[in-house]
Amino acid sequence: AYLLSEGRLRVTMIIPGVGEEALTFIEPGQMVGEMALIDDEPRSADVTAHQGPAEVYVLSRDVFRRLLTTDDAKGAPLLAGVTMNLCPRAEEALRRVVAFRVMAGPFV
């Protein structure tokens, strides 16, 4: 996972038949790539610096899992930050799924 310190990141995905689509922009203080801390699935999107350089801090899976399995209080703010980052993204993903379902119309 990466915590953006300076600059701006662009998150994109290749959509078959459409091409590259921008999903969101990451601003300083936000995190990206946090799902890689939790699962072993392939990346679902690409992240690049947007309009200039970016500085990020890296949180490896090994360090993340070590923080989860120890009672070291120093890791609590970091774990809270990851959780606070994941929750709004999960809610937004649910909103999008519901919106797509509504746009698709009734089941036949």
What does this structure look like?
The chain contains three helices and six strands. With 108 residues, the chain is of the alpha+beta class. The strands form two sheets. It has a three-stranded antiparallel β-sheet with strand order 4-1-6, with no helix packed on it. A three-stranded antiparallel β-sheet has the order 3-2-5, with no helix packed on it. The chain is globular and about 55 Å long. 8% of the residues are buried. The model has no long low-confidence stretch (mean pLDDT 86).
How is the biggest beta sheet arranged? 3 strands, antiparallel
> Order of strands side by side in the largest beta sheet?
4-1-6
Content of β-strand: 25-35%
Low-confidence stretches: none
Primary descriptors:
108 residues, alpha+beta, 3-stranded antiparallel β-sheet, 6 strands
Quick recap:
It is built from three helices and six strands, in the order E-E-E-E-H-E-E-H-H. It has 108 residues and is an alpha+beta fold. The protein is globular, with a radius of gyration of 16 Å.
Task: Furnish the topology, listing elements before pairings.
Layout: E1 2-6, E2 9-15, E3 19-26, E4 31-32, H1 35-38, E5 46-49, E6 55-58, H2 61-69, H3 76-104
Antiparallel strand pairs: 1-4, 1-6, 2-3, 2-5
